[in-house]
Design goal:
The protein is of the alpha+beta class and about 180 residues long. Helices cover about 20% and strands about 30% of the residues. The chain is built from four helices and ten strands, in the order βαβαβαβββββββα. A hairpin with a 5-residue loop joins strand 5 and strand 6.
Length: about 180
């Protein structure tokens, strides 16, 4: 199954719901790539020995990784953390996540400031480019186990919107003009 993404409705309902427009307006993998979002579908059952994951890590320079389980029983201050993850923000580096179990959502902004929701499921590896406004939330299952990957040492700093003055944001916006 390929990555599923769609334009979101403007509802203030629970953030964990799908928030599809009616009728649904899907977003293609090509549209995501034009926004700088890349995706691989891997076999999460063999992540520790997966040669495809190892090849991606080598090609992309992902030298650091750790694993986080996001569930109210495993993550201290669960509800507070979810609120923090759901704040619209950007990073100075790419955000790389690989879902090993469970599911969750990444929401990103397109060129017209519309929200696109990306459904992440077991086996999905995604990269969000530095400078893209985004947020993360669980779905209604309230469980995911994810590998976090970085080039070099991890940088955990998020810059909440507005953060348009950062060079990385300006470079990201310029890259959209080239598409």
């Amino acid at each position: 199954m390929s990555l599923e993404a769609w334009f979101m409705d403007g509802s203030d309902e629970d953030q964990r719901k799908p928030h599809r427009l009616d009728p649904n307006r899907p977003v293609s993998p090509g549209q995501l790539r034009r926004l700088g979002v890349f995706h691989w579908k891997l076999n999460a059952d063999i992540y520790e020995t997966d040669p495809e994951l190892e090849q991606i890590r080598k090609e992309q320079g992902y030298s650091y990784m750790d694993i986080i389980t996001i569930h109210r029983d495993t993550l201290p201050n669960y509800e507070e953390k979810l609120k923090m993850f759901f704040e619209e923000h950007l990073h100075l580096d790419d955000e790389i996540r690989y879902i090993l179990d469970g599911q969750a959502y990444f929401d990103i902004r397109d060129q017209e400031e519309r929200w696109i929701r990306i459904a992440m499921r077991k086996g999905d590896l995604i990269t969000l480019p530095a400078g893209i406004y985004h947020r993360f939330t669980m779905d209604e299952t309230n469980y995911t186990k994810a590998m976090r990957l970085f080039v070099g040492e991890p940088v955990w700093k998020a810059y909440n919107r507005p953060a348009d003055d950062f060079d990385v944001r300006q470079k990201y916006l310029a890259s959209l003009q080239e598409c």
